[in-house]
Amino acid sequence: MIPGSFDYHCPSTVEEATALLADLGDEARPLAGGHSLVPMMKLRLAPLEHLVDLGRIDSLRGVTEEAGGLTIGAMTTQAELMTSDLVASACPILQEAAAVIADPQVRYCGTLGGNVANGDPGNDMPAVMQCLDARYRLAGSGGTREVAARDFYEAAYFTKLEAGEILTAVHIPALPAGHGFAYEKLKRKVGDYATAASAVVLTLEGGTCNFASIALTNLGETPLWAEAASAALVGSSVDKAAIDQAVSAAEGIMDPASDGRGPADYRTKMGGVMTRRAIARALSRATA
Ligand code: FAD
User: Fold this and answer.
1) How many Å apart are CA 172 and CA 176, to the nearest integer?
2) Which of 60, 189, 199, 262 is the most exposed place for a label (fewest CB within 10 A)?
3) 240-253 vs 264-285: helix crossing angle, rounded to 10
4) Which residues lie closer than 8 Å to 156 by C-beta, 6 or more apart?
């Protein structure tokens, strides 16, 4: 189907964009890469009279080092994340996750900001951001604020973004040296959304896990930070008993829909399998 007609706005600063969104009200939306928004517009699920394109706002692009961590502009594309040396050295799990999003065509246009602001439980980056304890920087006509990725998602397509606000950047705190990481995603075919996926970061000291964080994609209405599963690994040697406990705790918070990707029981089981594989691969990469 062809989208309904709309007015196109092309601001060159964040202030201009937020002022436009405030003026235009409910029927205006920010446009980033358009690879979630335009398909929705074609379905004509909601009346949308104004698109505010963020693509000409230079301050929303790029990856910079900040306080040992990374700050990534909202309009940075998945393809740019995959080729950034800074991301490769400071936060390689981002490249692993970006590489399993859709296909190259989508990754050249799709942005990190659009992926995390969208609120679709099938998007891959939100769980990775929860795993990394990232913070989202938001700007509106009334000022700026930060929200933790772990607090941002309320329900499918409902987030803490308020009307007229845009996400300007994501800040990822510094990861400990020698950390192990993995993003494991089960999908039906190349380019598909996850049937189930799991992000894991952990560190070892003298063979004992002293930090672990696990988060899950498309296994509930929102991305899920698996706090109890993460805690089950800490203090252990990440042996079979600890992994079994972590997988069981992760499965305990999953509540996927039964849909074209499989019945809920199957998807929960696969969520457990993805978590087990991600822990094993993160462990193999961690330097003790
Ligand atoms: P847009 O589509 O432009 O925007 C998405 C939503 O976020 C809109 O509501 C928009 O108003 C809002 N928004 C965008 N930027 C901001 C901002 N800075 N501040 C506030 N609100 C904002 N994604 C995956 O994660 N995994 C997949 O496997 C996957 N497979 C796909 C397969 C296909 C064939 C297609 C077409 C898409 C797929 N996607 C997948 C979605 C893709 O990654 C999108 O690019 C992404 O979800 C949205 O990013 P975008 O930059 O295109 O945002």
Assistant:
1) 12
2) 189
3) 140
4) 119, 120, 121, 221, 222
Atom nearest to 60 CA in ligand 1 = 18
pLDDT of residue 120: 97
**Among positive and negative, which fits the CA dihedral 32, 38, 44, 49?**
positive
CB 35 within 8 A of CB 106: yes
Ligand 1 binding pocket mutation candidate from 16, 78, 118, 130 (most atoms within 8 A of CB)? 118
Ligand 1 center to residue 278 CA distance, Å? 25
Strands 196-205 and 208-217: antiparallel
Q: What's the pTM value of the predicted model, to 2 decimals?
A: 0.98
Nearest atom in ligand 1 to the alpha carbon of residue 37 is 2
Residue 150 CB neighbours (<10 A): 19
pLDDT at 112 over 80: yes
Give the residue, out of 35, 57, 128, with the most ligand 1 atoms within 8 A of its beta carbon, to mutate for a pocket test.
Answer: 35
Rounded Cα distance, 265 and 277, in Å: 19
One-letter identity of residue 103: D
Cα(274)–Cα(192) distance, integer angstroms: 16
Instruction: Decide: helix, strand or coil at residue 18.
Output: helix
Residue 141 class from Cβ within 10 Å (0-12 exposed, 13-18 middle, 19+ buried)? Answer: middle
Kindly tell me if the per-residue pLDDT of 127 is higher than 70: yes
What's the pLDDT tens digit per position in 59-85? 999 999 998 899 999 999 999 999 999
Strand partners, 259: 262
DSSP string, 61-90: --EEEETTEEEEETT-BHHHHHT-HHHHHH
Name residues contacting ligand 1 (CB within 6 A).
29-37, 39, 54, 74, 101-102, 106, 110-111, 113-115, 117-118, 123-124, 161, 166-167, 191, 193
